[in-house]
Amino acid sequence: xxxxxxxxxxxxxxxxxxxxxxxxxxxxxxxxxxxxxxxxxxxxxxxxxxxxxxxxxxxxxxxxxxxxxxxxxxxxxxxxxxxxxxxxxxxxxxxxxxxxxxxxxxxxxxxxxxxxxxxxxxxxxxxxxxxxxxxxxxxxxxxxxxxxxxxxxxxxxxxxxxxxxxxxxxxxxxxxxxxxxxxxxxxxxxxxxxxxxxxxxxxxxxxxxxxxxxxxxxxxxxxxxxxxxxxxxxxxxxxxxxxxxxxxxxx
Length: 251
Ligand code: PEP
Hints:
Layout: E1 7-11, H1 18-31, E2 38-42, H2 45-55, E3 60-64, H3 81-86, E4 91-94, H4 97-100, H5 107-119, E5 123-128, H6 132-136, H7 140-151, E6 161-165, H8 179-196, E7 204-208, H9 213-220, E8 227-230, H10 237-246
Parallel strand pairs: 1-2, 1-8, 2-3, 3-4, 4-5, 5-6, 6-7, 7-8
Helix pairs in contact: 1-2, 1-10, 5-7, 9-10
Phosphoenolpyruvate binds next to strand 8.
């Protein structure tokens, strides 16, 4: 079933010990409403199981921040999609820029991770986005086109894929593209996904990069923006709630 809009996902990155992660998860579960879009959190692996337990049967998606492309094996330090599923996760982020650019992960590896995550029954949140250098050189669409061609998993559709456009230069910087740019890029993404995947026009599209309480409503109001992927502001449940509620109900 397609995810209810607006979708508000929080990437906790490498922040959170057990006690504060439990408190953060409890706060999100307390404001999540079954009649208001889809809210999700992506905690560090070490607290994922606790977050699953805190959330219980309340309507909060819990996901991993990354996974390997194999179900098991001699891959020290890695976590497989099957393990995430076993821990109670329902989703996973793949291709985040902090892994693509920070750790040198390429499109093909990202595509294999996404395929493995789908096979394990996880919702895939596939991140794409250009660097500042690429943006300034006018290569945004060329980069997005290459990332889609290289990392979209074959056969994916609205029930198991979400695509997040996250310009690298907007992540954690307080800078965002203009609303016009966000509208234009998400319109382009919608057309590209429709062309590349059966059912691709229904795949949910997120914007990510310095989403805060004061810019969330404007971003979420853009026609092809189905939701947002929030980093820093998702660590503060008050800010995260504000962003969740900025989307309005029933879109
Ligand atoms: C992210 O990490 O995906 C992100 C969008 O971070 P921030 O909101 O802090 O820019």
